[in-house]
Amino acid sequence: MIGALVCALVTVLPGAHLAGATAAGTGAVARPPKTVTVPAYVGPQRLKARLPAGGMVAYNLPKLAVGGVRVIGDWDGDGAATTGTFTDGRWQLWNHLVRVGGAAVDTSFGLVGDLPVTGDWNGDGLTDIGVVRGNEWLLTLAPLPTDGAVAPVWQDVTFGTPGARPVTGDWNGDGSDGIGMFDNGSWLLADSPTDLASAVTVSYGSPGDAPVTGNWDGIGADGIGVARGSAWYLSNSATAPVTADRPVLGRRASDLATAWSVPNAGTDATCPTARSARVGRAAWVVPSAVLDRPFTVPPGTERQVRGSLEESERYLLGAQYAAKWRGTRFRAYLPLLGRSRSDELDVRLPAMSAFTVAIGLRTGAADPARTDATTVAATRYVDQLVRSIACQHRAVSPDGWGEGWETAHWAMLTGAAAWLLWDQLTPQTRADVTAMVADEADFRLNRAVPFWGLPDGTIVSPGDTKAEECAWSASLLSLASSMMPLAPHATLWRAKAAEVAVAAYSVRGDDTSSTPVNGVPLAQRLQGFNAYDNGTVENHLRIHPDYASSIQLLWLAADFDRLARKRAPEALFHNAGLVYSAFSTVSYQVGAASPAGGTYAAPGGTVYAPGHRTIYYPQGDDWGHSRLAPFVALDAHALTYGSYLGATGLPAATALAEHESGQRHLWRTSGARDGRTYSADPVVAAREDAYQGREEYAAQNLASAWLALYIRHLGTWGLDSSTLGVPAATAPAVRQPASAVGGP
Predict the structure, then answer these.
(1) Residue 224 and residue 204 in contact, taking contact as beta carbons nearer than 8 Å
(2) 280 in helix, strand or coil?
(3) 319's torsion region: left (phi>0), alpha (psi -120 to 50) or beta?
């Protein structure tokens, strides 16, 4: 756990430490191994640090009040070092660092003019607090009041010289923190605030240096150090100081030297905001054995799909990278959360980008001559995005993103990108990715399947089908079971994927059907429906082709099975032919009433019209009029899995050729030559597609389309019709037939 980290006012620079082993015989909680202290700066708006394996990180911090002082510690004992502030006797402490806001502790201790100190005085793994008033130390123990109440004094001792700078640290490695003073290169150090007789004096540093303390090597006791401008001089020993490291860390004029404790992953780029206890085992993963298999792409539509994907990759790795990511290229982890007003934009957009480029790299659609990026640069791009997204998931970092409405989709995109490049990732990144994917999959095991309508016909969420929500969950669960077949819940994830896949585009008649799908009758699986009887869906208070096209996520799940050399469950194709046929067989009459409300718009007809490369939206499209990439992906999957669909109407090959033609027209007429899909004029682009991640969304769908065509050339293996039992969605424990229960 984190021990003392000291921050002081403008005239008192911060010090820090990471405590070592637990004191023998004290009954204190053992501290997590493999943590290390790193040089850092805190300023008015950010924390900046250098990680053990190299690379910089920076995080936004809550606003600092006038006269306020930043402090760092492990306030809740979860192993993650987070920040706080001390202002005139008031302490506000946060238990997270990946986003701004939400102080968990509000405590009063000390007076105006006091200097704050922090440390684990009793070795219980919680960071305690205190103040120094001249040479009087007043200390209190955690847990602290959370409601602004005054914390009681635990120790009141006199130590050191007034005017010297207070420091704290575990000088003897017993697991609890001592106190100290620094005065122009002279250090006075006591092993415990209750044993001042142990104090020793050592010399290290010069007048004007800022004192810092910490467990610089992650072993045993804390050392001391000084910061002199951008230069740091660090000793692994406090009592016999010898410089062991001389890092240089660039700083702004307003930055104050401090130290920050992070997990130590050796030579890996370790997730700096991670809590100590998290579930995730890279050994659960079996990399795909069917990637990197070249094939000759025939002239025509398939080659054009690959070309469109490479154009999108060129934009992501070129013009967009220069505008969005180049300034952070030396950061080991990107501070994604809080960049915009929603986690969706902060997480989903880089997840889509990583997914896109990873597919290109492993399936032969990332020609450096076409994308203007080397394989090394493209891999580094995916690696940085994947590790940053996984690091900031709540399964890894406190208060991270995840376990929400759409988060299965983001985790699927990120997890798939990681799986495709598994051999290129560090062990630490692999562990974080598995923690993220497993957490999202487990979160859905016992959750009720959402439905738009009930068996009696009652519509419970008017204007809001749950089809795409089910498809998100099914694709994530399928990825989890395909990617991590050795995980304890792999069998349950696959069964739950079948359950939500069947529900995704279920119709009312399914609720009473005795037809078995993966060994379970539909009537037993379903408690409602999500689509109209003709295969269309209602969302945003209209008949919405975009949300009908989300059925392709179920077919993407089948891609994952094929990459894992498994047969895809037949549940992934329930009502697939009905839904795909509806695009070209359900005709809408202008002015006729829609069951979703309102009437149908001109020009009428079918969503897919022979000879047309655009999409007809019967009741208009709230996203824009130029979304074609999702339909390219839909058609490519329909072409690959056509024998399982039994669709009628416009052949998938014809639809794919027309919609790919429309996609090529978009990027060729964008007004830019950088590979973007939509107009270089942002006003025009917003009319074409209003989604802020429109470029990433188009790229992701083109990658999905190409993956489907890649699978088509590998060959599909038929469907898995074995029994995949249904977990009891609303029960506290998973219920399944005995034949489907369990896992390795």
Answers:
(1) yes
(2) coil
(3) alpha
